[in-house]
Design a protein that fits this description.
Blueprint (H helix, E strand, L loop, with lengths): L1 H27 L6 H12 L4 E4 L6 H11 E2 L2 E5 L7 H4 E6 L4 E6 L6 E5 L6 H4 L1 H8 L1 E4 L2 E4 L5 E6 L12 H4 L4 E3 L6 H11 L4 H4 L4 E2 H12 L5 H16 L3 E3 L3 H17 L7 H12 L4 E2 L1 H5 L4 H11 L6
Helix pairs in contact: 1-2, 1-3, 1-10, 2-12, 10-12, 11-12, 12-13, 13-15
Length: about 325
């Protein structure tokens, strides 16, 4: 029985790696030279999380979100966040049906497997808060009625840096619901030349075909849940989260939710490496993208330009590794 279970787990991991590689190749046919960004997006998807992509305009934030959404044959909805967007424009609204003489719920764009929120920080905090319930609890409550969201469910949101004009900073509760934040950055000269050659006449996104289905993704998520995490590695995660709460450079440390997200993301990263167990290297590699966007630096740290990313990297370097 144990051997059968082991072989079954090995087969599930092999299938996971194969499907994940197909998705990654499809995305990289659209996004040139950003393999690490694609890998993190897949990690968040398999960890049942949500991804925040923050960078300056024009580097491919929305293109990455669209490419991931289009490479999977499932329902996809895109929301362009603007200052006049209302919460009901996202969650849906109850409208009166004249024929039935009753109120009827009209689902909003959040009722999709992958929701692409473009420039999320251009909407007001009131509208941004419409995503809080669905991102954490996977359901939406409208007019006293609760509607479940279909699995898989992932919000991929893009945002411009807060110093850009017309932006609102995301509230702490909203940022804490994003599993990871990443920055795409400018492409290399070779990748930019490739982009000019391939994107100059037509968009590769138009030729992108789905290489996996929603059912495939659900199977992959189940396989990731079976990845083993030892008690020592869990203690390492807790110690890292606790270190952010006592760091003198931070006035807001990592929440218990962030430790849970780090655990789930490390499982997904291990599975993508064809491992059925998590090692400390997984935690160290994901600590900055999973934790940094939730932390608030002190005024002194801001003056000294100590960013949360630098603080997390320093804590990872100083924290002793768990004993085997």
């Amino acid at each position: 029985m144990v051997l059968d279970t082991g072989r079954g787990r090995d087969r599930a991991l092999e299938d996971l790696v194969t499907v994940a590689q197909r998705i990654a190749v499809a995305i990289e046919s659209v996004i040139d030279g950003k393999a690490e960004a694609v890998r993190l997006a897949l990690t968040v998807l398999l960890a049942e999380g949500h991804l925040l992509i923050e960078d300056v305009p024009g580097v491919g934030k929305t293109m990455l979100a669209k490419a991931l959404a289009k490479s999977i044959d499932c329902t996809v909805r895109r929301v362009q966040f603007t200052p006049d967007l209302l919460p009901s424009d996202i969650t849906g609204v109850s409208a009166y049906n004249q024929e039935r003489r009753d109120f009827e719920f009209k689902p909003g764009p959040v009722f999709a497997n992958i929701v692409v929120g473009d420039e999320i920080n251009r909407a007001s905090p009131k509208t941004q808060s419409a995503l809080l319930e669905c991102m954490e609890e996977r359901h939406v409550t409208v007019d006293g009625s609760t509607y479940q969201l279909e699995s898989p469910f992932m919000v991929m949101a893009t945002q411009n840096p807060v110093e850009m004009e017309g932006t609102y900073p995301l509230p702490e509760a909203q940022r804490d619901r994003f599993t990871a934040r990443m920055s795409i950055g400018y492409p290399t000269a070779a990748a930019e030349m490739e982009m000019l050659d391939t994107h100059g006449s037509s968009s590769p996104l138009d030729q992108l075909e789905p290489v996996a289905t929603g059912a495939d993704v659900r199977d992959l998520i189940r396989a990731v849940r079976g990845v083993l995490v030892s008690a020592q590695v869990k203690q390492y995660i807790i110690a890292l989260a606790a270190a952010t709460r006592t760091a003198p450079e931070l006035r807001l440390g990592a929440s218990p939710r962030s430790a849970l997200h780090l655990l789930r993301a490390s499982r997904a990263r291990a599975a993508l490496d064809a491992r059925d167990y998590v090692i400390p290297d997984d935690i160290q590699a994901l600590a900055v993208p999973v934790l940094a966007h939730r932390l608030l630096p002190t005024a002194e740290a801001l003056v000294e330009r100590q960013l949360p990313e630098q603080v997390v990297a320093k804590l990872v370097a100083e924290l002793p590794l768990p004993h085997p």
